[in-house]
Amino acid sequence: MANSRMRQNKRRRKSARKWIYIALILILCAGGIGFYKGKQYIAKTNKTNKNLKVQQKVVSVHNNKPQKKFVGTNDEGKKYTYDAKKISERIIKRHYSNNGEKIVFLTFDDGSSPSVTPQVLKVLKEENVKATFFLIGEVIEQGGDASRNLVKEIFNSGHAIGNHSYSHNYDILYPKGNLDLEAFKKEFKKNDDILKSILGENFSTRILRCPGGYRTWKGMEPLNDYLNKTNKVSIDWNALSKDAEGNPKKAKELANLAIESSKGKDVVILLMHDARGKEETAKALPKVIKYFKSKGYKFKTLS
Fold first, then answer.
1. What is the phi/psi pair of residue 112, to 5°?
2. DSSP string, 115-184
3. Which residues contact 71 (CB under 8 A, 6 or more apart)?
4. 44 Cα distance to chain centroid
5. What is the pLDDT of residue 71?
6. Number of H helices, E strands in the chain
7. pLDDT in tens, 242-284
8. Which residues cross the membrane (predicted)?
9. Which residue, among 167, 162, 119, has the nearest Cα to 141 in the 3D structure?
10. Among 302, 275, 241, 270, which residue's Cα sits nearest to residue 110?
């Protein structure tokens, strides 16, 4: 009898231990599954958060994408620059009064030429004023290293640089007097590439001057759309020395014509040329600059 009870108790204890082991195994399994699920959830959550951060970063970068920088001049020259867009609008509207504040932009087309540009730069340095040079790619190529070095000197001296096309060929740019936009874009892109090859890939310019002037040609409306899309500005002039018109003129006459065409204007965009054969323009420049100084004009560049 006693032995029978002992055997029963032993079986009960053995059975209890068995169920305890089973319970422990079930608890461990449940814990492992829970841990695995939890780890999956955390990993999924982290991945979701990471993707969200990436998306937010992409959106932020997209929304804050910087517009292209238009250099046109070096750091020294930046303090002389003026918004070319505002000046272009004045030319279009023929609005040259400026509440008595007088500004003059000396602009030189068709360089850089080894025979004239150095003389112009010398006068500008002596008079301590800055100017804007609208350069032609083909002229630079024809001038070789001398012209390329002059482009560097223009830039390093704090003057502004504008694009005046590669060839200045009216038949290419404006066949039968009408704008060929694709040819125009190719010409100015080719000149841009030449300027970059001299001044570095980071160089670019916002300003351009249409050979012959914007208002001379027909069918220019498509150019307006192109300029707006690319944030570029076409700049004409409202005063000139007539150094590229009619018979050759001496320095005194060129200076007088420049001064006369500038009278009555608070804002003056003066057209001159530093191409080969324009030595008289360089000689006229000191008188022109002294006149504007005497009338209280500030000398600015276009950007």
1. -95, 135
2. TTHHHHHHHHHHHT---EEEE-HHHHHHHHHHHHHHHHHHHHTT-EEEE--SS--HHHHSGGGB--HHHH
3. 202, 203, 204, 205
4. 45
5. 75
6. 9, 10
7. 999 999 999 999 999 999 999 999 999 999 999 999 999 999 9
8. 20-36
9. 167
10. 275
